[in-house]
Amino acid sequence: MLLDITPYSFISGVFVTSVFILFFIVIFARSAILSKIKTKFIIFIIIAINLRLLFPIEFLFMSESIDSYHFLAEINSFLNKNFYVKIGNIIHFGFKNWYIVYSIWFLCSAVLIFARWRKYSFLCKKVKYIPPTNDKRILDFVSQIKKAHNLKFDVIVIKDNNIKIPSEFGYFRKIIFIDGFDYSDKDLYYILFHELMHFKIKSNWIRLFSRIVKLILWWNPIVILFQNYVDYLLELCVDSYVTNNLNESSKADYLTCILNVYKSAGDTKISIQSHINSLVIVFEQKALKNRFYIIAKRKRKSIMNLVINTLLFLSFIIYIYISFRFVFQPAYVPKPYDLYTPIFTKENSYIIEENGRYKLYYYGENYMSSKNIELLPDVPIIDK
What we know:
The protein is 54% helix and 16% strand.
C-alpha cells in the first residue's frame, strides 16, 4: 500500500498547511507583491491548499515520523481514555473520548453544511420564477462580450430594483443579477464583463470548494481566515482577466465603474452569501484602495515578476515536500516499570511495525511505541 490516511497524517497536513497559509497571507497582504503574481498561480495555490486540507493523505514510501513526546502524546492519551456513564453505583456503558470528539466534530460540520445547502436551495427556488431581463442594451453587451472572449456557456441576466448590487450566482444555471441603478453604457459593459469572467474562471466552483473545506474544518481559525481571504483574491483574479488587454484609458474606465457601483450601494452593508460573487465584495476603503493599486500597477512581464513568481513557486514546492515528508506521531519515553510491570509475554503481547515505528500491544491495546525495537520487550512481531 503506497498511501494511507491516519489521524496523524491529518494533524500533520493541517498543521503544515496552516503555517503555509499564514505565510501565504503575509506575502499576499502586500499589494506591491500581489500585483506581480500571476493570476493562474493564485488560483492554483487556492485549489492546492484546499485539496491538501480535504485529503490529508500520507505517502508511505516517502514519509518520515517525527516524535511528539508532549503535545500529541497528551492528546492521544486523552482521546484513548475511557469515558463511563455511571448511574448510582452501576456503570451502564462506556466509550473512549475520541468517540465524543469526533461525534461533535462531524455533527457540527453536518449541521453547518446542511444550513448552507438550505440557503442555496431557497435562493434557487426564489430566482426560478423571476423572469430574465429583456433589456436590449444588456443582452447586446452580453452577446458582444461572449463573442469577443469565446464564452460558450449560457447565462441569464435578472434585473430588479430589489437587488442591492451587481453579482453572479449559480453553478449549472448561471445567473447575473443587476440592480435597478441607471448605469452608463461603459459601467454596464464592465459590470457584465466582470461577472462573466467569474463564470469563465469558475470562481463559483472554487468558492464552493473552499466553503466546504471551511465548514468541515470549522474549528481551525487559520483555515477560516484563509477562506474569507479567498473571496478577495478571486475578485483580484477577475480584475486581472478583465483588464488584461485594456489600455490605460480603459483601465481608468473600469476603475470608475467599480467606484460607481460602490457609490450606488450607498451605506448598505451587503452580506455576501456563500454562493454569490459581487462586483464590490467588501466595503472597507483599504481593501478597495488595494484593489485599485493592483489593477493600476499590474504588468504582464518584468524581471521582478519572474523573480517573485519563481520564489513563490519554490516556497510552494517546499511546503508540499514538508507536508508529505513528515508525519507527527505521539511518542512515549519508556519508564523502568513499563518494561517489567506488567509482565509482557508472547501470550498477552505482540509488536506491529507501522510506518517505521514499532507498536507494542498488550491484551489487544496499543501500550507504547518506539522507533527502536530494542527498547521494547521480547515478544512476537506480527504482520499488520
